[in-house]
Amino acid sequence: MRSDVSFTAESTVVRMTWSSVVMAVCAYSAIAVLLTFPLVLHLSSVVPHDVGDPMLSTAILWWNAHVLPLTERWWNGFAFYPAPGFMALSDARLGESLLATPLQWLGCSPVTSYNVTLLATYPLCAIAAHWRAREAARCRGHLRPGICLLPVPRRASPASRAAGSVRDAGRSRHVASVPGDA
Q: Is residue 159 domain-resident?
């Protein structure tokens, strides 16, 4: 039987076993699904929160999947023509593109790839926080470090907050069309 704890002369070193990593990822994934619940049922037809930011992110992820990143054409982007350098004015989302680009190449719509990427970032951030807390504390931990640092989605749209009403809190907005969506 293999132990997760090994002792050295200097300090106690705690290693995460594969089973503990899989259990943590499953737990954090379940929490992400619960936090964004209606989203998982409609991955290709809705975006979370308001339409503005998710649609900009969707369009940038679509652009990254169809144009070679960090080239002159990529930097000039798809907006503010004829002004050059659009992508310098926005977040390039190259890290998220590592997941979203293959999904689009496999046939997922841009909205689906955005939503899957969004849902994947929750457990990825949480497992990194979980690992870091275990390393810093040098002890076995529970899921608390990852849950505490788990990104919490915004539940109400800016329009509903400005109007003083939170009736739309937690609801997703339907999307009519997306760049490149056929």
A: no
pLDDT tens digits for 123-138? Answer: 888 888 878 777 777 6
Q: Are the CB atoms for 138 and 4 separated by under 8 Å?
A: no
Please state the domain count of the chain: 1
Buried b (16+ CB within 10 A) or exposed e, 81-102: eeeeebbeeeebbeebbebbbe
46 φ, ψ to 5°?
-130, 160
pTM attached to this predicted model:
0.70
Per the structure, the complete domain to which residue 91 belongs is given by 5-153
Structure tokens at 148: 């505490």
Distance from C-alpha of 158 to C-alpha of 156, rounded to nearest angstrom: 7
